[in-house]
Amino acid sequence: MTSGRAVVIGASHAGAQLSAQLRSSGWDGDIVLIGDEPYLPYHRPPMSKTYLADTVGIDDLLIRGTEFYEKQNIRVRRARVERIDRAEQRVVLSDGESLSYDRLALCTGARPVRLGIPGAELRGVYYLRTAEDVEAIRADVPGSRRAVIVGGGYIGLETAASLRKLGLDVTVVEAADRVLQRVTAPEVSDFFRRIHEAEGVHVRTDAAVVGFEGDDGTGRVAAVRLADGEMVPADFVIVGIGVRPNVELAHEAGLAVEDGIVVDAQGRTSDPRITAAGDCVTYHDVRYGKTRLESVPSAGEQAKVAAATMCGKETTISALPWFWSDQYDLKLQIAGLNTGYDTVVLRGDPTTDREFACFYLRAGDLIAADCVNRPQEFMFSKRVLAQSLPVDRGALADLDVPIASQLAAVRSKTTP
Ligand code: FAD
Q1: 231 and 251 within one domain
Q2: Which residue from 356, 414, 351, 352 is spatially nearest to 384, judged by alpha carbons?
């Protein structure tokens, strides 16, 4: 099918890519992209990086400008979708309008996990997901000296780096015994801790936050209370403790939902007229099994597949998951998912250098790699993972064996 009306809910990475791809895949009917944020789809990763550090404006971050949507005849509608009526094939918007659809795509993304502790409602306690969140934080920066970040994951650490750039005194408070505990090996966590401490960030691990204390009478946060009773002074707080997929619309419409909206390899939900893509989706990854990703490249890939499916074409989600994080002068690039690794191989010394690669192996096979300022190792890892090539553990660790030559060696061994 390539005519009729396609409605896309959620105007961010997945929604923008899906709408554009629908048009380029031959959809010649209406395309309506519905989003509840006040801007055209914009790049979200800079929210904790350059947008927070105030080095770029929102116009520089738009995924595509107004002209693109006009030229492609993609109607961008600012509203919140309140309900999907599958029997009638309609969506009901917050402003009362309802729109019929022939094909529907859910690109509703994710939202920050909220802390339900005393003082969580105080002014100056922020979450960081949208441009509006960042604009509110930035408005607080000039009158502030001390910022506390709750959560030592990627977003927390990127935020710490950006706030240091702005000259603030920054403390990162992490409940686990190391930063990035959920996503990296201890060696990589130790590296990032070392770098942040060298940049002047106070990193507190094994430190659970149990409440926020207000400034008497002002309703503003003044300190963060830790489980051991210690109070960490704060002029503002940013909480970055993970996200939850926005699955409620799908769930209420009776679609299959687990950790995310369940889609098949073609991006189809349990209703064949409805696809889904991006952070809100759970799918079966060919390499890693059941997966829900929070990554721009994956949102884009899934959106392309969903758009093709909506146009009646056969493609499947097969791209390798990858991700990146920028902190100070460090570019971390991650290929694959390290869940279930049994061995770590380091290339370079993370205890002294500002560049190295950490390869994750399971039963001798590479399953993922964290590469810090090591683009060649990242490209190598992507190739090995995409083609399921074998690796030589000794050579991986040996800086005298160039990484490119290892790919060539593997190729000559595996091609008859
Ligand atoms: P989202 O970007 O979450 O967009 C969903 C959109 O749908 C939102 O605009 C939401 O408001 C809207 N919406 C939801 N429900 C409705 C409704 N009912 N009606 C209308 N609109 C609705 N990824 C990387 O790969 N690299 C990075 O360096 C990186 N850095 C990040 C830094 C930060 C601060 C954050 C928050 C994320 C970062 N990510 C990064 C993750 C990346 O931004 C997400 O994976 C990506 O945005 C997912 O895109 P999406 O379109 O699926 O969802």
Answers
A1: no
A2: 414
Q: How far is the CA of 400 from the centre of ligand 1 (A)?
A: 41
pLDDT tens-digit map of 348-376: 999 999 999 999 999 999 999 999 999 99
- What is the whole-number distance in angstroms between the Cα of residue 367 and the centre of ligand 1? 26
Q: Is 260 in the pocket of ligand 1 (CB under 6 A)?
A: no
- pLDDT tens, position by position, 110-131: 999 999 999 999 999 999 999 9
Q: Is 156 in the pocket of ligand 1 (CB under 6 A)?
A: no
Find the CATH number of the domain harbouring 394.
Answer: 3.30.390.30
Return the residue whose CA atom lies nearest to atom 6 of ligand 1: 10
> Could you tell me if 395 and 401 are in contact, meaning their C-beta atoms sit under 8 angstroms apart?
yes
Predicted TM-score of the model (pTM): 0.96
Contacts of 386 (CB under 8 A, 6+ apart): 320
pLDDT at site 161: 98
Distance 346 CA to ligand 1 centre (A): 32
| Alpha-carbon span 196 to 160, nearest angstrom | 8
**Is the Cβ atom of 295 under 6 angstroms away from ligand 1?**
yes
Clarify whether residues 130 and 235 are in a common domain: yes
